[in-house]
Automatic annotation (TrEMBL):
<keyword id="KW-0812">Transmembrane</keyword>
<keyword id="KW-1133">Transmembrane helix</keyword>
<comment type="similarity">
    <text>Belongs to the TerC family.</text>
</comment>
<protein>
    <submittedName>
        <fullName>TerC family protein</fullName>
    </submittedName>
</protein>
<feature type="transmembrane region" description="Helical">
    <location>
        <begin position="83"/>
        <end position="104"/>
    </location>
</feature>
<feature type="transmembrane region" description="Helical">
    <location>
        <begin position="135"/>
        <end position="157"/>
    </location>
</feature>
<feature type="transmembrane region" description="Helical">
    <location>
        <begin position="12"/>
        <end position="36"/>
    </location>
</feature>
<feature type="transmembrane region" description="Helical">
    <location>
        <begin position="238"/>
        <end position="258"/>
    </location>
</feature>
<keyword id="KW-0472">Membrane</keyword>
<feature type="transmembrane region" description="Helical">
    <location>
        <begin position="202"/>
        <end position="223"/>
    </location>
</feature>
<dbReference type="Pfam" id="PF03741">
    <property type="entry name" value="TerC"/>
</dbReference>
<dbReference type="InterPro" id="IPR005496">
    <property type="entry name" value="Integral_membrane_TerC"/>
</dbReference>
<feature type="transmembrane region" description="Helical">
    <location>
        <begin position="169"/>
        <end position="190"/>
    </location>
</feature>
<feature type="transmembrane region" description="Helical">
    <location>
        <begin position="48"/>
        <end position="71"/>
    </location>
</feature>
Amino acid sequence: MLDFLFTSDAIMALLTLTFLEIILGIDNIVFISIAANKLPHNQRAKATNIGLLLAMLQRIILLFFVSFLVGLKHPFYTIDLEWLHIAVSWQSIILFSGGLFLIYKSTSEIREKVESPMHDENSLTRKKIKSLSQAIIQIIMIDFIFSIDSILTAVGMTNGLHANHNYNLVLMIIAVVISIGIMIGFANPIRKFIDAHPSIQLLGLAFLILIGFMLITEAGYLSNTQIFGSSVGAIPKGYLYFAITFSLFVEFLSFRIAKKTKA
């Protein structure tokens, strides 16, 4: 286990996944803060911390469930036509559906943030919360919605890293725990940084589109899909790491140039 966690692939996956989990958690922090701010001042910090801990717990539970389904590799149905061959398994269904969901969700989020960035916040602000228990129930519902793309991203980043599926699960759990811990300790600074640099969040959503496409191709590869005699191949995760690292480097350079321009 330790040998795997200290391999270059595992370290890159952990760093990238932790970064993406934090980016995905920004909206979660915003909505939890809106719900918590409706409570008396002495209960707000408690509600926020409980909300983030519940987010971590929900994600770990969902990771076990989704990882179990992804582990079901044996085909239960085969599509065999003249031009198409697919050996359908639960693993391929989960990966394919997850990829489509990430592409749809990320595209919708980008459009919403560009055209009506305050829509969801205004909708939640209108809801009445009178007690800590009501706030926690609201937070649990918010956490569940935001857990789905987080879990699918974790699966996309770690699937296939190790032959033993449990090792990949441990890596996902570590990334979730680290990201939630960072958000609990630095929620306000992270939120202020993202507010000052909204391009970071848009960049994170763009990465999810790449991960979604990678999940779809991986589903095709693992289900031995052949279209007109051509097999679908898996995209090496090194390409994804390079794209993310290069994009972040360009974004860093733009920050430096913007600072020098202001100075």
